[in-house]
Amino acid sequence: MTELTIYNNGFTISTDKQKLDIDSIHEFLSTKAYWCLNIPKDRVQLAIENSLCFGVYEGNKQIGLARVISDFSTIAYLGDVYILEEYRGKRLSKWLMETIMNHPNLQGLRRWILLTGDAHGLYRQFGWTDIADPSKWMELYNKNVYSK
């Protein structure tokens, strides 16, 4: 797997999992991410272990993340994309998406998928569209899997 570390105006994007701050990632995902509120820390850890992760940092402080789940041949799922609120509006999400979409191990895929409730405009800038034929898609969804 090609490991990337890219610097821009005091910020860094890295795919080095050793740099990830699991506590801060868990804090955000379990308390602020509408898609996985209350997710247990061990689930976050397992998800990270089994994904290509893009950490976003200011110095050593983790300020964002995106995970890609892929076979690196035909398909990729983009998930857990976030930038901490106090760092939004600095083009970091666009830079993060550019970095992900240009990663050498994610080229030539037949399909990318993601779920978003509020960031359609960001993803459309990178060629993402609504599902062309939703009648072909199915899901098994457990909305309350992390409820106590």
Protein traits:
alpha+beta; Aminopeptidase; six-stranded mixed β-sheet; GNAT_dom; GNAT family N-acetyltransferase; Acetyltransferase_Butenolide; acyltransferase activity, transferring groups other than amino-acyl groups; Acyl_CoA_acyltransferase
CATH superfamily: Gcn5-related N-acetyltransferase (GNAT)
The level 1 CATH classification is Alpha Beta
Strand order of the largest sheet: 1-2-3-4-5-6
Mean pLDDT: 96
The appropriate CATH architecture is 3-Layer(aba) Sandwich
The structural domain count equals: 1
How large is the share of residues in beta strands? 25-35%
Q: How does this structure look, described?
A:
23% of the residues lie in helices and 26% in strands. It has 148 residues and is α+β, with helices and mostly antiparallel strands. It has one domain: Gcn5-related N-acetyltransferase (GNAT) (Aminopeptidase). Strand 3 (52-58) and strand 4 (61-70) form a beta hairpin. The model has no long low-confidence stretch (mean pLDDT 96).
What is the topological layout?
Elements: E1 5-8, E2 11-14, H1 22-31, H2 41-49, E3 52-58, E4 61-70, E5 75-83, H3 92-101, E6 111-114, H4 120-124
